[in-house]
Amino acid sequence: MFSTAGRCGALLAVVALMLVATVTPVALGTRVTTTKSGMGVDGFAYPKGIIRLTVKSTEKWQYQPDGIILPAASELQVEAAKEGNKWTLHNGDCALTVTSASPQLSFQFSCQGKPLVKATASDNVEALPEVNFTFPAARTMYGLAEHAADLPLRGDAVYEMYNTDAFQYPINSTKALYGAIPFIMAYSAAATSGVLFLNPSETSVRINSEDAAPSCRWQPEVGVVDLFFLPGPTPAKVQRQHASLTGATVMPPYFSLGYHQCRWNYMNTKDCLSVDEGFDQHNMPYDVLWLDIEHTDKKKYFTWDKYTFPDPKVLTTALASKGRKLVTVKDPHVKREGGFAMHEEASKGGYYVKDANGNDYEGECWPGRSSWPDFLNTRTRNWYAEFFHDDRYPGGGRDIHTWVDMNEPSIFNGDKGTMFKNAMHTLDDGHTVSHGTIHNAYSFYSIQAVYKGMVEAGGAKATPERPFILTRSFFPGSQRYAAMWTGDNMARWDHLENSVPELLSLSISNFPFCGCDVGGFFFDTEEELFVRWMQAGAFMPFFRGHAHLDTKRREPWSYSPASQPIIRNALALRYALIPYLYTNFYHAHTKGNTIMRPLFFEFPEQEKLREVQNTYLFGRAILVQPVAQKGATEVTVPLPAGTLWYNYFTGEMATGGTYTMPVDLNTIPMFLRGGHVVPMKLRLRRSTYAARLDPFTLFVALNAQGNSYGDLYCDDGTTFEYAKGSFVHRTFSFSESTLTSSSFTTDTPASNGVFAVANAVERVVVYGYSGKVSKVVLTTAHNAIDMATELDFEQVGATVIVRQPKVLVAADWFIAFENE
Ligand SMILES: *[C@@H]1O[C@H](CO)[C@@H](O)[C@H](O)[C@H]1NC(C)=O
Ligand SMILES: *[C@@H]1O[C@H](CO)[C@@H](O)[C@H](O)[C@H]1NC(C)=O
Predict the structure, then answer these.
(1) What is the pLDDT of residue 6?
(2) By the 8 A CB rule, do 332 and 375 touch?
(3) Higher pLDDT residue, 16 or 122?
(4) Mutate which of 205, 217, 218, 224 for ligand 1 pocket (most atoms within 8 A of beta carbon)
(5) pLDDT confidence of 596, banded at 50, 70, 90?
(6) Which domains, from first to last, does the chain contain?
(7) For the Glycosyl hydrolase family 31 C-terminal domain, which residue ranges apply (predicted)?
(8) Residue nearest (by alpha carbon) to ligand 1 atom 13
(9) CA–CA distance, 201 with 128 (Å, rounded to integer)
């Protein structure tokens, strides 16, 4: 992942290897043809039937972003069968035909003989790298994140991709936002496929009218045609194929799944400590306190304001004593101030992006006159990474993590709020390339540098820890290093409502670790909106409250006493779900799954769910529909057919179809999916650290056959040792009236038995039990002798609660229900 070798590189290689089990040697692609005007057409095959096709000049060098496609994604030899002006590239069950009929090249990607994608491009070197796509087997297109728009792509609209610092952005808009994933998923119940168009220049995609087969016109401004065709055939498979190319999500440090408290700005150490105290006084859990730009000495990052934060260790030590963390913002712009080490080194060392005249690029940002590191080259990334090292970052250490804002990059006096397109970057091989050519990928390289710096910060002798990084701007590959959030939203009901489709779009475009500013960044948040946003945030992979400098204080206890217990309930529910969420992240990280899943994605055979965008699966087993309407007294939830659903709070069972339920301010429409076990920690604590030894409650939601299955993954939450097998992974399965706890056996690598957990199970809750229970018997093995113990239980209707089995969550045991 990094071109420098060493501990960190080797370690990351282990992580990358986990994703793709077999690594065949890299073979070159196959030259399919060279067009009359000198365009080379090359084909490459990747595992799982994926085919890549590039069209670029054979005469002049052209930029292609480096390091985004995983090296572990091996290139297989393509068989090219020539037939006149038509060639067919085979890869397993899939094939790509290339037809050259000057001035046009046309492509058809088919799997098992079914045409999935048809595309046309120009064969002329002077033409734009434009491609028209049609998806003949599909019905609806999704993707092109990031947009504050509906989840399905809308016809007769142009989706812009040009990473930008969008100020007070409107919703239901296809204007460019902070990040770009040039990817489309084309769905129907019969066949879902995907296309990734790896070109980081300013791009617009016109979605044609919705009347015809889904089609679009994709227009990058410059650069090469570089297409990846993903065969599916299901949405979940397209997602995993996408992750096999650009990487699965980063494995989050455990604490980062807790609640984060941010504000522009917590003003000084005392203010911070009182916010921290406030959570404890109000019995509200949180894990991370954040510092925005004002904590620095005049917006020079990696420094501290000497009056407001004279000794940062006071703060980190106080937080760490409760197991909590600090995140500080480190934006990529560098203040041009004599004597500032970062600036002095950058200008002397030639680390800055250059303007068209070859001088350091200068622009205005938070600190005033600024320049930007040229993250496109390894030399600059290695230099920048050093600023995270413990010997360079005052007050640093493993309890401080990183927020990277403004990395589009945002430039106040630039062009479209960013760098002029004629600014120049220098690549490792010495080529220079204009900013316009690389723009959308700039933030990817900035985050690579941050990740490297943080992993190696403790020095060669320290055990590396997983960094937590939040990035505003992103491109494919950024998900390997960081979480993202949707930038500067507003405290409005429609922004709350739209945040779900926006995050779902990101989630199925391979950015699982996503969230939005809870409460809305701009403007004051009315109490009801704040409560609803905290409830929604509890079901977002990244959960952070944040607010603009001009807003009223908004810590979760700032509203009326009546709202406090409701907000506390939302926080408590989030914390209860973290073991389940972490388990889902492990699957996402190792297999390329995602976390938030639209209904069509999880139930692809039910095409009528394809427009649903406010109801979703949070992981595999929980369906949620956050309330986003002011004054709501009732909501209607579309429950997918063919599955039993259980109201989490009451155990009430519902079959598929629209489900109408009354809601008050305390209601979160949340359902357990029949057939799934959800491990939770129900005791209210101050932080994930404080809950680490707590016992589990296992929720067992039965399907129509009376079965259920689920798992629980635990590791140290901090280091990379899990990649060597230091974890505990358990399965819980319920069948024939018996709940069995056993080891999860199909991990690669398998557990090495080094890591242990001592948590007990304090409760088992079974939903949907059809018999009348007369006796519950626990069987454990002691020295190979089975011991049977009768357990306390209570049955109300179809809900059975078994109390205090007091078994270890990591031990083998079974609990059998006997009927009257
Ligand atoms: C794409 O389609 C448009 C019409 O919709 C056409 O004008 C354009 O030439 C096509 N481009 C390519 C590369 O096929
Ligand atoms: C968004 O705009 C489209 C028209 O472009 C419209 O069909 C759709 O209903 C709007 N969505 C919302 C949530 O308002």
Answers:
(1) 35
(2) yes
(3) 122
(4) 217
(5) very high
(6) 30-246 (2.60.40.1760), 695-819 (2.60.40.1180)
(7) 592-678
(8) 121
(9) 12
